[in-house]
Amino acid sequence: MNQKLINFDRMIKGVLFDMDGVLVDSEEYICRAGIEMFREKGLAVEAADFRPFTGMGENRYLGGVAEKYGFPFDVDRDKARTYAIYRGLVRGRLEALPGVFGFIGRCRDLGLRLAVASSADEVKVRINLREIGLDGALYDAVVHGQMVERRKPFPDIFIQAATLIGLTPAQCLVVEDAVSGVAAAKAAGCRCLALTTSFAREHLAAADWLARDLSEAPEECLGWG
Asked: Which residues are catalytically annotated?
């Protein structure tokens, strides 16, 4: 009986979705926007400069590159300019990644609570969800990076997302694609499905399950713990 109670407590009751690399692949466009923003300021950077900061939110994504080159960075002004460029780049070009709508449908059929939990700023989250047709009505909560003090790899964003949908982290599955996101999920006490859309499998080994995208998500990730 005790084992059954333990299993019931560990049953997945909610799913917390990262956004970039999970629901949509906008990495190319935010990278291009960042490159253009720095070009306008007189600094030539390349896509590889941004990769170590993937999944950490734009403060670090842009700020880390500026720090690498010892280049001045005004977080509010430079992010605003990057988002302005980004908005123009993605208009009419973003699509949901394979399996997204089917997986969300399965979750809803199972009565699971859903949240988006992204380190990105609110403006980027709203742009992306609108562009791919995943408005807030499909989720019980949307948590963005400006709602927490510490962004991934810290666990704060997943703890807050779980709280907002009335669950504990242990009752939640996190779907991630970034090394920092997997670390944040495990630190929060969530189970984690990692998608290999952005990083190779060996870099995501800390996750409980691995899949190429949500169309190949294993059935057991939504089952018993």
From this structure: 18, 20
